[in-house]
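Run log // design_07
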């Protein structure tokens, strides 16, 4: 029976978490790292992981923590810690409407149309329009996303 030090056991548990509780992958990764208590080697591995995480984020700003973790075979907590260390903040990506070059002219055309149609006598056209900053309407109500 092999006796492990406390630090080696901690390393095993951390690697097990990085491998998403896959015992075979954790065993292989632990063997690949050759835990000989060489702190410089551990630092290089951690630095390489950080660089890979940052590269994935720079390549696609909308990538999720779990997607990065899955691609690099590490835990999403490790990804989160690395990003936090480098002053990145996690967020949920929301799509918004984009403005195009011809939008300004079309908005002016729409405003002129409203002014022409509302100037007529006894026309309450503007009172019939619901102005809202809500992004989604359904038959059952309004939902803000």
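design_07 sequence
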């Amino acid at each position: 029976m092999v006796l492990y030090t406390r630090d080696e056991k901690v390393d095993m548990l951390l690697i097990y978490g990085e491998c998403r509780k896959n015992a075979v992958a954790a065993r292989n990764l632990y063997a690949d790292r050759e835990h000989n208590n060489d702190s410089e080697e551990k630092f290089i591995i951690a630095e390489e992981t950080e660089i890979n995480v940052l590269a994935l984020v720079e390549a696609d700003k909308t990538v999720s923590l779990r997607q990065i973790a899955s691609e690099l075979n590490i835990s999403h907590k490790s990804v989160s810690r690395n990003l936090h260390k480098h002053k990145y903040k996690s967020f949920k990506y929301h799509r918004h409407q984009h403005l195009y070059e011809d939008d300004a002219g079309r908005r002016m055309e729409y405003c002129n149309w409203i002014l022409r149609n509302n100037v007529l006598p006894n026309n309450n056209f503007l009172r019939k329009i619901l102005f809202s900053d809500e992004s989604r309407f359904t038959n059952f109500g309004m939902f803000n996303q």
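Residues 103-143 form one domain.
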